[in-house]
Every structure is written in structure tokens, then in C-alpha cells.
Amino acid sequence: MAGQEIRIPKLALRVVPGLLFSIAIIAAQARTVIRYRQNRKLLLDDVFVIFACICLTSATVLFYLSISATYLVETIILDPTAIEIPHDFLDQVLWYQKGTYCYLALSWTAIFSIKASFLCFFKQMIDRLYGIMIYWRIVVGITAAVFVLCVCAVFIACPHIGLTALSCSMDRTFAVGYTAIALDILTDLLITSIPIFVLWNVNIRRRQKLSLAVFLCLNIVMIIVASIRMSGLHIGTVDTVDLIWELLWQQVECCIGVIMVSFITFRTAFVGENSLKKKRRWYSPGENMWYRKKRSTDDEHNIGNLPIIPSATLTGMRTFIQRNSETDTAHVESDVDERSVENVSLI
Hints:
Elements: H1 10-39, H2 44-65, H3 67-78, H4 89-126, H5 130-157, H6 170-200, H7 206-216, H8 220-231, H9 243-279, H10 285-299, H11 317-324, H12 330-339
Helix pairs in contact: 1-2, 1-9, 2-4, 2-9, 3-4, 4-5, 4-6, 4-9, 5-6, 6-7, 6-8, 8-9
């Protein structure tokens, strides 16, 4: 064990998670404001994002409080002669174990809240595509089961606290850790496959399909981060888990998930604003003044103060997909066409 060094510097462990956390929270706040202005209320996918941010904030606090104890424990595991063991070593070990257990439970909850937000977002597009809705329900069931397993994984790997944790099998710890990350990746793949199946049946150009697929499959970035976390779980030739590597990339995955789910709203809002600008008629200053004066005069002759009809604020992706999808029965096609207008502003 002697000579083995910790791969992640302490400065990087303090700076990188904090920077990503700040970006994630700012992005989530902007997302919430945009969604509320669009829908005049918060939808279920918005609630999951807010809940994920609460869990992420709590997990980040525990992450920073546990940095010193985590470095101490891993340094002693890698090379017991590298430092002098402090007199309060047992207290720090107990704090590390409790903090890590709570951190992992909160971070897994944040990650799966993001997955739930993606699922709710996709459901708005496929609620009348019955075949894909069955698949969506299956994915929801699998994701819920994997969430329970991931939250309990650390307790399954080692249910002991304190010095009795030394009796835990390292092989079992590796097996449970790899299984949890592999199932995490599996659920991301299943969620990503939903928009792919939808786009497969849409009669649009291949370039449009590729553009929509990239936009709807942003959670594939979480798959990349989880794969990196799995690849570095084992420390070189030492038969132990790299605690710092696991915690760092767990934190990165949480933050990236919040950023990606927020980016969907930014993209649709930006495209929607651009489409509205393209529809606006250009007037010279004189013509514009005449037009506004004429419009105000005409408004005086309108009957009563009728409510303003809300207009579409986004791209109407749900309507676009449903209108172009190939269905097996004329009933489904008729239902999509008749109700497509009211779905324009739901995405």
C-alpha cells in the first residue's frame, strides 16, 4: 500500500463541486422562472427539479463537511505510515461513515428526482401514443425499483458503523457499488430511449430528427459521468474503493443532471422567442406610430373587455410529434388532430 497517492487534490475537491453546484442552482432558478411564466403554474416535472435542488443542497453541505475526514480515512487506508494518526481518529471515522451514508442517500435522491423530471416531461408528449405509454410505465417501474436499491446500496454493502465496519467484505462492497452504478446507467438508457422511439415514428427529415434527438436526450451526459465514476472506483493495485473519487463524481452527476434538465427549458424558450420575432411585421417609425394609433382607435369599438386569448410561447414540440407520428388506427390520428391546438404551449 505504501507509495499509493490520492488521485484527486484537495483543492480540486473543494473548487469543482462548488462551481458546478452554483451553476446548477442558478440554472434551476432560471428554469423555474421561465416555466412559471409559460404555464402560470408549476407542473410535476418542475416540482421534481425543485426537490432535486433541495436534496442537492443538503448533500453538498454534507460533502464539504466530510472532506477532511474523508481525506484522513483514505490516506490511512493507502499508507498508514504517511501521517500520524490523530487522537480523535475514531470520532472522525464515525463522522465520515455517518456523513457518507447520509450524503449518498441524498445524492441518489437528487439524481433520481432528475430522472423523474425527465419522465414527466416526456409523458406530456406521449400521453395519447398508447404503445409508447405502456413502455413509459415500465420504465417508471424499473426506475423506482432501482432508486430504492441505490439508496440502500451503501447499507447493503456494509451495514455496520464504527470499528465493526472493518469486518465488511470488500468484494461485497465492490459488487454492490458496481451494480448500483450499472443500474443507474441502465435507467438513463431506458429514459433516453423514450424520445428515440417517438422520433422513430415521426415523418420528418432526418436532420430534424437528429436535432430533436440531441435536444431530448440530454440526460446521456449523466450516462457519461456515471461511466467515469465506475471506471475509477477501484484504486490501482490496492483492493479498496476510492472513496474520494466516488463522492466527487457522485456530486458531479447530481449537478450535471440539474443543469441538463434546466437546459431543455432554456432551449425551448429561446426557440419560441425567436419564432415569435420572425412573425412580427416590420414597420418604419412613422408607419408603426400610425398603426398603433389606428389599433387603439379600433379597440374602442370592440364589444366589452373580452379576455385575451393566450398564445403559444414555445415551439409546440408535443403537437409537432403527435401530428407527424405514424399511428395504426384512424381513431388515434383523429384524436391528435382535434386536440393538437390546445397542446401547443404545454411543453
